[in-house]
């Protein structure tokens, strides 16, 4: 799975159709779109680089804002592991080299169906980086998406995450 899509609760079917059409139009007829058993969340497995999908969707929102209605956020997932502290930090270490010495970062945690402590995760992940933290204008976002026993991890620029709200605000 390399793309997490959020939608309003109980609109998973409509969102699945919308993301299916988007991927079809971009050229991936083989994609897999799965309900993860949590309302408002779909996981997508696509052959297309998630950043290309997000660029395409951002452009579409400007050209034809009515086309994207159900996909509230699209988040590229670079690595998936079990929801265990040691495994999460191991995966972050594998991805950390994109952050350069003078870059700042923010750790964002989104948890669903877990009792892991956000503070504990932030503390452990922050130990990996000697860099400066910037909560408002980071160069990089270390994103940890916990979905029960599976955790998706990405290190992204803020503009690599699609948010329908932000995109529509920008196009106004």
Structural class, from secondary structure content?
alpha+beta
Question: Largest sheet at a glance?
Answer: 5 strands, antiparallel
Question: Which parts are unreliable, with pLDDT below 50 for 5 consecutive residues or more?
Answer: none
Beta-strand percentage?
Answer: 25-35%
- The H-and-E topology, N to C, reads as EHEEHEEHEHEEEEH
* Count of DSSP strands: 10
Radius of gyration: 16 Å
Q: Which whole number gives the mean pLDDT?
A: 95
> Can you count the helices?
5
Q: Distance between the terminal alpha carbons, to the nearest Å? A: 33 Å
**Can you give the helix content as a percent range?**
25-40%
In order across it, which strands form the biggest sheet?
2-3-1-4-10
3D structure, described in words:
There is one protein chain. The chain has helices at 12-26, 50-63, 85-95, 118-126, 164-171, and strands at residues 3-6, 32-35, 41-45, 73-76, 79-82, 104-112, 132-133, 140-147, 150-156, 162-163. The protein has five helices and ten strands, in the order E-H-E-E-H-E-E-H-E-H-E-E-E-E-H. With 172 residues, the protein is α+β, with helices and mostly antiparallel strands. The protein folds into two domains: 3-77 and 160-171; 79-156, VC0802-like (2-Layer Sandwich). The mean pLDDT is 95. Strand 6 (104-112), helix 4 (118-126) and strand 7 (132-133) form a beta-alpha-beta unit. Strands 2-3-1-4-10 form a five-stranded antiparallel sheet. A five-stranded mixed sheet has the order 5-9-8-6-7, covered by helices on one side.
């Amino acid at each position: 799975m390399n793309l997490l899509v959020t939608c309003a609760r109980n609109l998973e079917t409509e969102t699945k159709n919308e993301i299916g059409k988007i991927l079809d139009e971009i050229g991936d007829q083989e994609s897999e779109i799965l309900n993860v058993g949590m309302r408002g969340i779909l996981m997508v497995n696509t052959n297309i680089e998630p950043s290309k999908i997000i660029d395409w969707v951002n452009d579409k929102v400007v050209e034809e804002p009515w086309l994207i209605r159900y996909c509230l956020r699209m988040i590229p997932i670079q690595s998936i592991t079990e929801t265990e502290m040691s495994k999460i930090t191991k995966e972050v270490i594998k991805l950390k080299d994109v952050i350069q010495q003078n870059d700042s970062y923010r750790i964002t945690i989104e948890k669903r169906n877990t009792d892991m402590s956000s503070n504990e995760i932030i503390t452990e992940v922050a130990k990996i980086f000697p860099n400066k933290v910037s909560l408002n204008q980071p160069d990089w976002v270390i994103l940890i998406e916990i979905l029960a026993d599976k955790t998706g991890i990405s290190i992204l620029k803020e503009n690599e995450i699609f948010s329908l709200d932000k995109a529509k605000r920008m196009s106004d």
